[in-house]
Write a structure and sequence with these properties.
heterodimer, A: mainly beta, 0% helix, B: mainly beta, six-stranded mixed beta sheet, four-stranded antiparallel beta sheet, 46% strand
Chain lengths: 111, 113
Amino acid sequence: QKEVEQNSGPLSVPEGAIASLNCTYSDRGSQSFFWYRQYSGKSPELIMSIYSNGDKEDGRFTAQLNKASQYVSLLIRDSQPSDSATYLCAVNRRGSYIPTFGRGTSLIVHP
Amino acid sequence: GAGVSQSPSNKVTEKGKDVELRCDPISGHTALYWYRQRLGQGLEFLIYFQGNSAPDKSGLPSDRFSAERTGESVSTLTIQRTQQEDSAVYLCASSGRTGDIQYFGAGTRLSVL
């Protein structure tokens, strides 16, 4: 079992819809969770960080963390074609200073 | 500078040559990471520096790879006797706190012919 798993996609959604991206992790002691967006040919940039159970909202983005079920998700409301990118989930395990990245989910928002 | 700076942005080299990649982290960031990303693949951790502590080299794929960092300043990643499989984008990231949000540079695209 991989430490951090994401569906590689592509996930295709129409413009204006809600895109739901999921990530599961194996270490129950994981403490910090991050979503990065990576446009093709560009470097990753942080979208959201979340550290405690529940939802965290920032504009059109909502991160959801459920430590009991060991998953973290990212919801993108009112998806725009400019949201088309690969979304990387990163998890920092307890006692580790090196976040583990998932392989990313490719999101395509079509007009 | 305002962000993480990497140079060169592109490097084309011949098989067997040595290359040196440079990363200038955000001022004040004590943690610095190097990653490799092959085309269409995820991030592959290479090495981690934290202040003046001994680096974590556990991700370096072979002894042809080495990296240095003096204190909390610039880091250089050196690849000796480059091979075609070394072709990738090499990303540097810095963080103000260990294990926290990482800020990535634009990367160096290395092509080994």
